[in-house]
Amino acid sequence: MRDTRASLLSEAEILVRGRGYSGFSYADLAEAVGIRKASIHHHFRTKEALAQALIEAYDARYDAALDDISGQTADGVARIEAYGRLYLGGVERGLGCLCAALAVELETLPEALRRAITAFFEKHIAWLAGVIEEGQISGSVRAGLDPQAHARMIVATLEGSLLLERFLAGPEGFGRTLAALSEGLRPVNKS
After folding, report:
1. 134-163 burial code (b ≥16 CB/10 A, e <16)
2. How far apart are CA 34 and CA 188, in angstroms?
3. What is the CATH number of domain 45-182?
């Protein structure tokens, strides 16, 4: 049986990704996990502490995924496609990205959460910029692209597609967007 803390994190992540930070309460979480609301406070004294733990767990999962992607292939476009597929689970489950769902409410979030969300996205942009730079050196990514600008575009495209395809064309539409994004990064064949 899963421990209570893990269950709370799992269910809270679903609630935040589906409803946003302000869209759920400890009462909602208690009902989802099947415990008393007061029991949640034993694990997470405040909603901010819960959200911080969610971001940390989400970030750790992505760190492991980025390491896996880096170890699977040196091809820049293949790495970016694998990164894009990390978003596919959200499309399939009808859930947004945790950090993007929180970022929507940025102005109302505590400062510590804002910093954690910013750090999450900055890390991903830096990783993607590195993939683009390495890909340009190896010839697997089109030369002449601005790595920082394109890394930001990749994140923005995937986040936007995750949002849109949850209610438009689902995984198929997301796959088409990812394919178009990837195609724009491939080196131009000069036959």
Report:
1. bbbeeebbbeebebeebbbbbbebbbebbb
2. 56
3. 1.10.357.10
* CA-to-CA dists, residue 157 to 36, 127, 149, 161, 180, angstroms: 40, 16, 12, 6, 10
> Which tens digit of pLDDT belongs to each residue from 82-104?
999 988 887 777 777 878 888 88
108/176 Cα distance (integer angstroms): 35
What is the reported pLDDT for 100?
Answer: 84
Answer yes or no: is pLDDT of 22 > 70. yes
| Distance separating alpha carbons of residues 40 and 77, to the nearest angstrom | 43
Q: Which residue has the tokens 């190896």?
A: 138
pTM summary value: 0.89
- In which region does residue 40 sit, left (phi positive, over 0), alpha (psi from -120 to 50) or beta (all else)? alpha
What torsion do the CA atoms of 107, 112, 114, 120 make, to the nearest 10 degrees?
A: -170
Contact between 91 and 172 (Cβ < 8 Å): no
Helix axes 4-19, 47-72, angle to 10 degrees: 90
In the chain, where the domains are located:
45-182
